[in-house]
Amino acid sequence: MENDITVIFVSFHSEDIIEKSIATINHNIPIIVIENSRNFTFKEKLEKKYSNVKVIIPDQNLGNGAGINHGVKNIKTKYVFYLDVDTELFPDTIKNIMKAAKEIKSFSILAPKINNFDYKNDCYLKSNKNGKYSSMRFVTGCALFFEKKLFREIGFFDENIFLYFEENDFYERCLKKKKSIFLIENSKINHKGNSSVKDVFKEEIEINRNWHLMWSTFYFYKKHFGKITAYKKVLPKLFSAFFNIIFFTIFKNKKKRKIYSARFSGILNSIIGKKSWFRPNINNNKT
Questions:
Q1: What is the per-residue pLDDT for 285?
Q2: How far is the C-alpha of 262 from the C-alpha of 260, rounded, in Å?
Q3: Eight-state DSSP code of residue 122
């Protein structure tokens, strides 16, 4: 069964952590890494060390959703297993999720259960915590298993979104087309969370995340629930960001001022209809 699956990672300066995840995957399973940092040295190192790994470097930083799309277009297997670079599999993770795919047959997304993490009740459509599978409204996007054919039918991830809410958008489209999402209770992973990029880039990445979280929040709610709902979601955050910019300017906290400036800019740019243009100011020579 493992001949039917390819693992996809989307990486951005993640060379310090991605190998921990790769090491937990059977070496017979093909792995594609979409490397958004244009680090060709990293590509050469990874491909030389692992015979089952292929690193693809796009012409530009694609972000997460578009990066996954790019990976899917370059695979030949029936199934795809997207993983964040800071996830680690258990020995039976893939075996159990593949078994579930054969049993369920009709699904859009299967997600393994994250070790030591519990979903809130509103994430479930039909809970089956004591059984094999639970029908979900939402699962975290750190590990997503899907069939390539159906993924194409749903329409790939929305490439207007650079970061955040790309999976929420995809789930909404899945559910509107009556395509189910399942949490596979006996397929487990570890997920460290917010640790995919080198520590030296931490501040720049935090600014980037705040900008895109705000931009994507308005975009997602406007797309699926209308302008009024979108404004209700972001206007309190817009005013909060504005007053925090003033506060941290007065008290000369440059780091906090940058973060709230990024939040304010992300919301404002999304409201006025500008594309998700902000990118982290990082180059491969920074140490």
A1: 45
A2: 5
A3: G
Q: Tell me, yes or no, if the pTM score tops 0.70.
A: yes
Angle at 250 between CA 244 and CA 251, to 5 degrees: 90
**Given this model, what pLDDT does residue 16 score?**
85
From the list 273, 165, 159, the residue with the least C-alpha distance to 212 is: 165
pLDDT at 9: 98
In order, the DSSP letters of 36-82 are TT--HHHHHHHHHH-TTEEEE--SS--HHHHHHHHHHTT--SSEEEE
Q: What six digits make up the tokens of 248?
A: 């941290």
* Residue 141, C-beta contacts closer than 8 angstroms, at least 6 positions apart: 64, 84, 166, 167
Q: Is 189 exposed, middle or buried (0-12, 13-18, 19+ CB in 10 A)?
A: buried
> How do beta strands 87-89 and 79-83 pair?
unpaired
CB 119 within 8 A of CB 214: no
- Report residues of the chain scoring pLDDT below 50: 285-287
Both structure tokens of 38? 């244009």
C-alpha distances out from residue 58 to 38, 70, 240, 279, Å: 7, 8, 37, 15
Q: Is the dihedral of CA 122, 123, 128, 134 positive or negative?
A: positive
Per DSSP, the three-state class of 117 is coil
